[in-house]
Amino acid sequence: MLKVFVPTREHSSLVTDDYELMRAFMGAIEERFDVEWCKTGVEADFILLFEHVSTKFWHYAAELQRDPTFAQYKGKIVCINEDDASRGFLAGCYTSLTKHNFKHNLSHRIHRAIPFLKHYNVLLKSDAVRIEPDPRPRYLFSFRGASLTNPIRRKLFKRFASFPGAKLVYVDRSFGTHRSQDMIDYVEEILQSKFVLCPGGWSPQTIRLFETMQLGRCPVIISDQWVPIAGIDWGNFAVIVPEREIDSLPKILAAREAEAADLGKRARIAWEKNFAPKQRFLLTFSQVIEVWQEIRERPVDYDELHSSWRFYYGNRFTLGQRFKQGIMRRINQFRFRDQWKHW
């Protein structure tokens, strides 16, 4: 039997206040795994820490050191992190790891990619939701979203905003502030499309990928920094297009147009198997166990990790990288000042 301690905000400021999610997760795990939820970390095999969502910078390492839960149990902590910009400060499972992280950090050993754990579009919250796609969709491909979050999105709008057979809709609202009609239009446009573009935003992985699969459409992943969730045959139902090839997008998709319906059906099957509400919890917990087994065999030296050049460079924390990012941010704030008003 696994003995697991799940701290709350009462134990640590590092923890999310989304107790509803934590309870749902623990309930699903109890149904499939032989697990005992411990009252303290002393008797636990490992600590499952649902990390609060925030943008974490280089000084987060000092915040960790001040936290009593981290100080006492850091050798046993496995986190679940849904930040848009994952940094990998803790061993654990992340929705937004980048290939850059994997190349320069210990990510290949102590980190795992996972799906988003909850839905944000109220129309798609239940795994019972099964909206049948239109058998004769109007669009070859579509995309609805903001352009501010990633240069590749701006290129897509510039190149295909008026493209025949495509529908691209610019949204000037930040995530979580969409109106009811926005959510309805979003779902309808996916259902009216043969392919749905899933470019990276603030993070390389987007919730749109899983919503497209849920709705039975073929996702087109355009995100060079995306880290695929292990154990999923993505090529069986998704089209992956390198960012440098977006000018050829219509040609690439037209060549696979006859497969679109079948790809969409396979995407829905993969979603039901891996990413429906309970399934995504089970998949994530299996990844958590992998990380725990890894750090149990070879503990992480956090002092060494957080001070290493590879960690700083992998997260773009070096002085030169921070200076360059600051300059680019100010340039973009000026270039897209009308859009920044909504963020």
3D structure, described in words:
The chain is an alpha/beta fold and 343 residues long. It folds into two domains: 2-115 and 280-333, no CATH class; 122-273, 3-Layer(aba) Sandwich (Rossmann fold). The protein is 41% helix and 15% strand. It is built from 15 helices and eleven strands. The strands form two sheets. A six-stranded parallel beta sheet has the order 2-1-3-4-5-6. Strands 8-7-9-10-11 form a five-stranded parallel beta sheet, with helices on both faces. Strand 7, helix 6 and strand 8 form a beta-alpha-beta unit. Helix 1 crosses helix 11 (277-297) and helix 8 packs across helix 10 (260-274). The relative contact order is 0.13. The model has no long low-confidence stretch (mean pLDDT 88).
Count of helical segments? Answer: 15
List low-confidence stretches.
none
Which class best fits the helix and strand makeup? Answer: alpha/beta
> What is the typical, i.e. mean, pLDDT?
88
The biggest sheet, with number of strands, parallel, antiparallel or mixed sense and barrel status, is:
6 strands, parallel
Helix content: 40-55%
Largest sheet, spatial ordering of strands: 2-1-3-4-5-6
What pattern of helices and strands is seen along the backbone? EHEEHHEEHHEEHEHEHEEHHHHHHH
Task: Report the strand count.
Answer: 11
Strand content: 5-15%
- Roughly how many Å is the radius of gyration? 21 Å
Spatial shape: globular
What's the domain count?
2
Distance from first to last alpha carbon = 46 Å
